[in-house]
């Protein structure tokens, strides 16, 4: 398996993975509507701050992690935000998610991040099981104000 930072002009390659991810998240998020995979890939390609780690096996995309490099004002440093992480269902159980997170941590070490943070829906039991094994649960909760009810999480 290889993990690389996916160049912006190659992000269209994520469309098949994004379709699988969106379908899975609809189940976790109680049927919430999602955008088309092409719209999702276009957003990633055009977003100036989004970065994508891509996991491949045998030249096939099997997983991704979307990262943001953010200011961390408490420590006057930078931190990483892992916004989305996905591994194809048939590729799970082989350490790909763990390897994507490890690659994000290495990226953070190189950039001098104070920490890497992420959120996970309470209903994503498999992801929570992994995160409980490899990370420390944060001391804060996540809250949301829904501005567009059609984009509910």
From TrEMBL:
Q: What is this protein called?
A: GNAT family N-acetyltransferase
- Tell me the keywords, alphabetical order: Acyltransferase, Transferase
Indicate the segments forming the N-acetyltransferase domain, all copies.
Answer: 1-148
PANTHER family xref list: AMINOALKYLPHOSPHONATE N-ACETYLTRANSFERASE-RELATED-RELATED (PTHR43877)
Database matches in Gene3D superfamilies: 3.40.630.30
What InterPro entries does the record tag this protein with?
Acyl_CoA_acyltransferase, Bact_Acetyltransf, GNAT_dom
Biological source species: Falsiroseomonas algicola
Q: Does the keyword Acyltransferase apply?
A: yes
Give GO MF terms, alphabetically.
acyltransferase activity, transferring groups other than amino-acyl groups
Say which domain of life the source belongs to: Bacteria
């Amino acid at each position: 398996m290889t993990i690389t930072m996916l160049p912006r002009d190659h992000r269209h390659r994520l469309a098949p993975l994004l379709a699988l991810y969106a379908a899975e998240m609809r189940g976790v998020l109680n049927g919430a509507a999602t955008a088309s995979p092409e719209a999702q890939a276009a957003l990633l390609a055009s977003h100036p701050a989004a970065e994508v780690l891509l996991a491949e096996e045998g030249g096939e995309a099997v997983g991704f992690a979307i990262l943001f490099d953010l200011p961390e004002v408490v420590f006057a440093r930078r931190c990483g935000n892992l916004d989305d992480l996905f591994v194809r269902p048939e590729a799970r159980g082989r350490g790909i998610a763990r390897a994507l997170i490890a690659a994000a941590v290495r990226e953070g070490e190189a950039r001098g991040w104070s920490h890497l943070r992420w959120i996970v829906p309470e209903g994503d039991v498999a992801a929570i099981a992994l995160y409980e094994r490899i990370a420390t649960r944060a001391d804060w909760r996540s809250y949301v104000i829904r501005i567009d009810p059609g984009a509910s999480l």
